[in-house]
Amino acid sequence: MNMNRLNVFRRLDELETQNLHLQVMLKNVRMEGEALRGAVGDLLGMLENMIRPKPKAAPTPKPKVVKSKAALNAVLEKRREYARKYYAKKKAEKLAVTA
Fold first, then answer.
1. In Å, how far are 3, 10, 13, 17 from 6, measured between CA atoms?
2. Whole-angstrom Cα distance, residue 65 to residue 99?
3. DSSP code for 1
4. Phi-psi bin for 49: left (phi > 0), alpha (psi -120 to 50), beta?
5. 41 Cβ neighbours under 8 A, 6+ residues apart
6. Torsion on CA atoms 85, 88, 92, 93, rounded to nearest 10
C-alpha cells in the first residue's frame, strides 16, 4: 500500500475532528450570545422601570350630588331655549341665502 494514501486518510480524519471541534465551539458561542442578549434585555427592562415615573393612584370618585326635580327641569328648559334660538338662527341664515 502506498504511504501517500495513508497520509491522506489521516489528514481527513484530522480535518473531521477539527471540524467537529469548531462546530462545538460555534454552538457554545451562539448559546453565550443568546444568554447575553437575554441579560441585556432584562437590564434594559429594569432600567426602563426605574426611569419611567410610577403611575399615581386614581383619585377616589366623589359621590354624585342628587339634584332636585326643579333643578333638573330648569336645566332642561335652558337647553330647550338654546336649541330654539340656535335653530331659529340657522333657519334665518338659510332664508337669507336663498332670498
1. 5, 6, 11, 17
2. 50
3. -
4. alpha
5. none
6. 70
Query: Cα-flanking dihedrals φ and ψ of residue 55, to 5°?
Result: -70, 140
Q: What is the mean pLDDT of residues 2-29?
A: 87
CA 10, 12, 16 angle in degrees (round to 5)? 120
Specify the length of the chain in residues.
99
In this predicted structure, what is the pLDDT of residue 89? 96
Q: What's the pLDDT tens digit per position in 39-58?
A: 998 888 888 877 777 778 88
Distance (Å, whole) CA 40 – CA 93: 67
The Cα 1–Cα 15 span in angstroms is 22
Residue with cell 334660538: 85
Name the one residue in this structure whose C-alpha cell is 331655549.
Answer: 81
Radius of gyration of the chain (CA): 42
CA geometry: angle 66, 68, 74, nearest 5 deg: 120
